[in-house]
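Troubleshooting entry. The earlier prediction with coenzyme A gave an output that would not parse, so I re-checked the input for stray whitespace and re-submitted. Clean input:
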Amino acid sequence: MKIDVMVATEEHLRFVTQINDSIDEAAKQRGTGIARRTDEYIADKINSGKAIIAVNRDELVGFCYIESWGHDEFVANSGLIVRPQYRGMGVAKRIKQAAFDLSRKRFPNAKLFGLTTGEAVMRINTALGYEPVTFAMLTDDEEFWKGCKSCVNYDVLQRTNMTKCLCTGMIYDPEKAARKKAEAEAAAAEQNKKKGSWLSRLFGNK
Ligand SMILES: CC(C)(COP(=O)(O)OP(=O)(O)OC[C@H]1O[C@@H](n2cnc3c(N)ncnc32)[C@H](O)[C@@H]1OP(=O)(O)O)[C@@H](O)C(=O)NCCC(=O)NCCS
């Protein structure tokens, strides 16, 4: 088996219906009742270079796409699916990493976010540097939240005035990540400096 993960191109348009069927089936099994995207919508994601696909030679393995919201201030990864026979092999991790890289390349200043009830996605997001946040920190783009309307838990979201639901919101803020990285580098440099002066005191530095 050789699973390749890549940005989807025209040659993958033949998988569109199968991708949609797989997302549908998984949503039914999880009881989330997510609305079926049209084949045109998935095809448009592929044609605009906003989809990641995993294939095993000529067979569909998994998929996910990215979409920007709030005038490109936010980018979400959606429609993540790994076909059942390929689960537990790290494929979702590879797809999400590729979607993360694509999002950072296409929308370098955007905050990346996602909503999920799934432990697997929470784990993957955490490893990528996402943090759990309240819904107030996510996009207020009404078009994005319209996507929740077909979920079986939508009444919860409505009752809480769109402030909370069963999903956990997670966000990757590139500014915060850059700050954290700079702080970690400064702390490491300080540590090295201390180590250097401790060694010179120990062995002398004439
Ligand atoms: C969720 C899904 C995409 C995971 O795909 P996968 O290829 O099996 O995931 P991976 O093998 O890359 O595993 C990623 C991590 O999640 C963990 N994980 C995988 N499946 C899990 C499960 N059912 N429960 C808890 N953790 C799980 C793995 O142990 C791994 O964690 P680690 O990095 O700490 O070891 C797949 O099960 C799926 O398509 N489910 C149906 C659709 C769905 O739920 N989509 C997400 C919508 S938000």
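This one parsed fine. The chain has a mean pLDDT of 93.
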